[in-house]
C-alpha cells in the first residue's frame, strides 16, 4: 500500500471532474437551495480548530429549522446539548464551516461552505422560540459556496430504504457504552431513562 501525498498522485487515480460538477458551485443560495433547506430536518456542521483539529457535529429539528436570512446568510439555532462546545470553540479561532444537509427520502444532499459567527442577540434567538424557551445561541453562517451533491453515497447506503435499518437492541444503551468507556462506578443509565431525560431537556 502506498501513501498518496500529492495532487498529481491523486489525479493519477481519479479522472478530472466533469464540467457540470465544477459549474454547479454557486456563491449564493438560489431557489433550489432555499427549497432544500426548507425541507431539511438534519445537517452536519463541520469545523476545524486553528491547529487543524477537525470536528463534525449533528444538528437537527423540524424541517426548515435552519433559516435563510438572505441569499448569503443562514441562521442555525443551538439548543441544550452535552456542553462540550467542540464546534463552537473551533469557531472562535477559525470561522470556516462546512454544512451537509439531508432530506429524508431524497438521495441528493446539499453542501454549504462559509464562515460562521456565534451570536446571542435576543432578536435572533427569538426567531426560534419554542414557547417560552429560546436557543442558547444562534450560529450565523456567511455563505461562500453552495452546491448539490450527487445521490450515489445515499443510494449505496440505502439510507432511506430501510434495508439496513437495525433494532436498537443490537447496541448496548448509550449509558452502558459510556460507563464502559469511562470506567464510571455509577449505575448505567438505561435507554428508557435517557430518552425520558432527553424529552425534558430537548429545548
From TrEMBL:
InterPro entries: Pyridox_Oxase_FMN-dep, Pyridox_Oxase_N, Split_barrel_FMN-bd
Gene3D superfamilies the record matches: Electron Transport, Fmn-binding Protein, Chain A
Transmembrane region(s): none
Pyridoxamine 5'-phosphate oxidase N-terminal domain segment(s): 31-150
Ranges in coiled-coil conformation: none
NCBIfam families: PPOX_FMN_DR2398
Descriptive protein name: Pyridoxamine 5'-phosphate oxidase, FMN-binding family
Amino acid at each position: 500500500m502506498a501513501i498518496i501525498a500529492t495532487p498529481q498522485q491523486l489525479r493519477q487515480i481519479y479522472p478530472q471532474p466533469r464540467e457540470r460538477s465544477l459549474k454547479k458551485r454557486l456563491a449564493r443560495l438560489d431557489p433550489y437551495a432555499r427549497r432544500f433547506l426548507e425541507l431539511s430536518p438534519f445537517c452536519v456542521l463541520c469545523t476545524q480548530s486553528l491547529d487543524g483539529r477537525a470536528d463534525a457535529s449533528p444538528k437537527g429539528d423540524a424541517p426548515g429549522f435552519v433559516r435563510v436570512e438572505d441569499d448569503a446568510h443562514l441562521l442555525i439555532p443551538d439548543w441544550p446539548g452535552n456542553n462540550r462546545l467542540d464546534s463552537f470553540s473551533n469557531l472562535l479561532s477559525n470561522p470556516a464551516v462546512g454544512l451537509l444537509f439531508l432530506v429524508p427520502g431524497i438521495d441528493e444532499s446539499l453542501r454549504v461552505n462559509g464562515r460562521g459567527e456565534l451570536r446571542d442577540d435576543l432578536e435572533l434567538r427569538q426567531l426560534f422560540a419554542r414557547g417560552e424557551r429560546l436557543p442558547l445561541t444562534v450560529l450565523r453562517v456567511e455563505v461562500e459556496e453552495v452546491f448539490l451533491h450527487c445521490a450515489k453515497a445515499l443510494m449505496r447506503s440505502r439510507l432511506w430504504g430501510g434495508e439496513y435499518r437495525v433494532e436498537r437492541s443490537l447496541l448496548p444503551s448509550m449509558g452502558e457504552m459510556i460507563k464502559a468507556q469511562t470506567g464510571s462506578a455509577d449505575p448505567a443509565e438505561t435507554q428508557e431513562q435517557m430518552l425520558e431525560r432527553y424529552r425534558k431537556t430537548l429545548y
